[in-house]
């Protein structure tokens, strides 16, 4: 599933393509026909990423809400839109550009009240300039759940997925199984700052890179990672491979229904145990 940086890039892209323009909307597949009819002919004011949710705000007071889920994909281009091929849920077209959406989990229209409700049920997004991580830490400190699961809970931190979470925990030297209530304020400050930095860099690069300069392939004389998700990482999908720092085999285990990855040497289970807060 795309993580927050991808949605943030889409919001920027769609703003560049359509903001200030009147758009014609259609649902060639038919499943969003009613919504498309309500949107068609309105002007896109602005776009916004809230965690993994994408919003288009239109001048008729409605907002288009999209969650890509596992299979959702956008395509766009210049000029007139092509003939729809396959299951196109939504097609937008201005005089200059077109956009197609296929396979999203959510494609719906929201009123301003519903947009507020969406924002309110999401946790703090490290990519937003107004992000305040205080409430997220309060939630984490009240929980016995494993830290990796808490950091992927979108009502606590929004936009984070498995890659950012496993990598940030590696960089902090904390095991993914650390109970939330044992996370110290200092460790939370480190993790939060790292999420802000890594996710911001991923927005710029269009991929997730988490290794420090001294662990890049050229610095270590090792071959670059080959993975369709791209980017250099420490532990994500590296089970059985040697840790870039200590050489120990990276482990994989299931946590809250998802795979988790960690280095048992760099992230020992004794790490991060809080004394007092
Ligand atoms: Zn290691």
UniProtKB/TrEMBL annotation:
Residues 234-268 form the FPG-type domain. Coiled coil: none annotated. Its EC number is 4.2.99.18. Gene3D superfamilies: 1.10.8.50, MutM-like, N-terminal (3.20.190.10). Keywords: DNA damage, DNA repair, DNA-binding, Glycosidase, Hydrolase, Lyase, Metal-binding, Multifunctional enzyme, Zinc, Zinc-finger. Its cofactor is Zn(2+). It catalyses: 2'-deoxyribonucleotide-(2'-deoxyribose 5'-phosphate)-2'-deoxyribonucleotide-DNA = a 3'-end 2'-deoxyribonucleotide-(2,3-dehydro-2,3-deoxyribose 5'-phosphate)-DNA + a 5'-end 5'-phospho-2'-deoxyribonucleoside-DNA + H(+). CDD domains: AcNei1_N (cd08970). Belongs to the FPG family. This is DNA-(apurinic or apyrimidinic site) lyase. It comes from Micromonospora sonneratiae. The lineage of its organism: Bacteria, Bacillati, Actinomycetota, Actinomycetes, Micromonosporales.
């Amino acid at each position: 599933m795309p993580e927050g940086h991808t949605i943030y890039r889409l919001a920027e892209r769609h703003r560049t393509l359509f903001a200030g323009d009147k758009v014609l909307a259609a649902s060639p597949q038919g499943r969003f026909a009613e919504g498309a009819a309500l949107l068609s002919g309105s002007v896109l004011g602005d776009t916004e990423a809230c965690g993994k949710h994408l919003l288009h705000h239109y001048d008729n007071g409605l907002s288009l809400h999209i969650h890509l889920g596992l299979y959702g994909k956008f395509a766009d281009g210049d000029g007139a839109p092509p003939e729809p091929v396959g299951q196109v849920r939504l097609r937008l077209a201005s005089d200059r550009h077109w956009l197609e959406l296929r396979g999203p989990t959510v494609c719906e229209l929201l009123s301003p009240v519903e947009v507020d409700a969406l924002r309110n049920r999401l946790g703090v997004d490290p990519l937003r300039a107004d992000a305040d991580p205080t409430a997220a830490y309060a939630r984490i400190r009240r929980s016995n759940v494993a830290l990796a699961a808490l950091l992927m809970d979108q009502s606590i931190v929004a936009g984070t997925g498995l890659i950012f979470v496993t990598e940030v925990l590696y960089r902090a030297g904390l095991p993914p199984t650390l109970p939330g209530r044992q996370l110290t304020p200092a460790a939370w400050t480190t993790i939060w700052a790292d999420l802000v930095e890594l996710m911001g860099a991923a927005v710029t690069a269009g991929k997730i890179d988490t290794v420090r300069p001294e662990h890049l392939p050229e610095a270590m004389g090792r071959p670059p990672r080959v993975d369709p998700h791209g980017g250099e990482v420490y532990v994500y999908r590296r089970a059985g491979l040697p840790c870039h720092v200590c050489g120990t085999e990276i482990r994989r285990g299931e946590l809250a229904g998802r795979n988790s990855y960690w280095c048992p040497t760099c992230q020992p289970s004794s790490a991060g145990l809080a004394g007092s807060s």
